[in-house]
Structures are given as C-alpha cells and as structure tokens.
Amino acid sequence: MRFFKARPISKLAVSPPKANPERRGVAIPIIVKNEARYIEEWARFHLLAGVSHFIVYDNGSTDETVSILRDTVPAEALTIVPWAQSLRDGRSGAEIHNQVLAFAHALANYGAEFRWMAFVDVDEFIVPKAEASIEAALERVAEAAHVSLPWQMFGRGGHEAPPEGGIVANYTRRMRTTEGARHALNWKCIVDPSRVTGVRVHGMEIDGKGEGVNDAGVRAAHSAREKAGFYSAEFLQLNHYYTRSNRDLQAKRQACLIASVALQQHAQRVMRIVAEIEADEVEDVAAIDFIARAQGK
Fold first, then answer.
1. What are φ and ψ of residue 41, in 5° steps?
2. What is the model's pTM?
C-alpha cells in the first residue's frame, strides 16, 4: 500500500465581515518573523504612503522585530497578534498554510473597519506612482473589490553584503518586465474586505468569484491575469526586493538546502528566479521619487 502526504491547505473559505458604515483607510495584515534589519524601513515607507493600520502576525520572532514596530508605528495604528503555530487538518493531516490562516483571521476580525486591505510581505513595497498615497491611487478603481498588482522584481543590485542606507536607496535595478516571465511573475492584491469569500496568498475570491481588476481598472479572471492587456503598474507599483544582497540570498538558500526535500526544491526555484531577474535589468527609482514627493523635496 502506498501512502501519500496530504497537500497543504492553501485556500480557505470565509464569510466576509459586514462593513462598518464609517470604515476608512488602507490596512496591511502581514506575517513576520525575525525581520529586525528591515522592518523599520518597510513600516516607515508605508506610513508615508498613507497606510492607516498594520495588523502584524508575529510568527515567533526572537529578535527585536516587534519592539522596533512599536517604536516606529503609532500605537493606534498597530495591532500585534502572536502567531507562532503550526496547524493541520484533523482528518487528512494536511498543513494549513499559516499565512493564509493569518489573512483569513485579519479579514474576519478587522476587515469591517477598513475600506481596503493590502496583502504583501516585508520585502514588498507598494509604490504610488503619481498620487500622494495608496488610497488616492485606488480612487480610480473605487468600484472594484480586488486589485491585482504584479511583482516588479529587484535582484541583488551588485551588493555582496547588506548596504548601509536601506533597501529603497540601494536597490534600484529590477527586471525590465515580469510580463510573460517564466519564473518571476506573480501577483499580490488589495481588496475590499467586505466582499472576500475565499483567501489565498496571491489572489482572493470576491463574491464567490476569482476575478478582479488591475490598477487601471481592466478586469480579468485571476486565471487570465497573464493575458495581454491586463499587466499594469501604471498607478501602483509593487516593488518586490526578492533577494536583497548576495549574502542574504545565500543564507536563505543554505537554510533550504539543509532542510527538507521540498525546501531544497524551493532553493533551486529561487536561483532560477534570480537568474531570470538579473538577465535583463533596468534602473528604477519610482520608490525614491515617491519618498521625495511625499516629503516635499
């Protein structure tokens, strides 16, 4: 008899919260673990971009991640949720994806209070291209409930070790375009929490359907986002600082190589993505330009 390991549960169905009539602003639910080196810059950038609340799921950090957040983000704009756990389905034994579980929890417990929720990671920065804030850039798609943002992929930028001065200032070279990329294209989303019925990392289900718009308002099913005419970063750009320095990359790779077979395969995939990013790079200072504009420089 052959035994098969159950596949991880990576989609959860949810009942959307009833929107508070006075809801407003953009919230970011995010899961973190030991991000002390990078979390302050990430939080300050998104505060500058008008994010009104951070719902931080702490997955067992042993460094100063949480205390840095408390020192950086105003208390009324920060919720910390302990989230060091590993949950499995009681029948199949399938692992429940911890990030998906956190996102579902955020939607159910906090979603009623916010007009938008943006689901990103600590190495992803949402950059308003012309407007003063993320929320202002979303006004052109105000009737939508799901906005898909394609990754703009930044590589090592020639840095062997983490440079002084932060991510945005030092990593300014990205893959020319991820449109049509074999390995380096994926999406993150900004949603109306009151209409989410299914939760996944790279795309939410809205009113029972897997569809939404891009940042310019063009509609498509999630399964058709790679078709011509949908890819857009005209008004909101999602900078994914995928590798950071070579030292960061190699540390991540080595951790995978000494772990499970699945993580070893992931390490191989990471290196394929890095090769794709760095094969054709261009200079991109959209995030630097936004900071200067927001600070009135």
1. -60, -45
2. 0.95
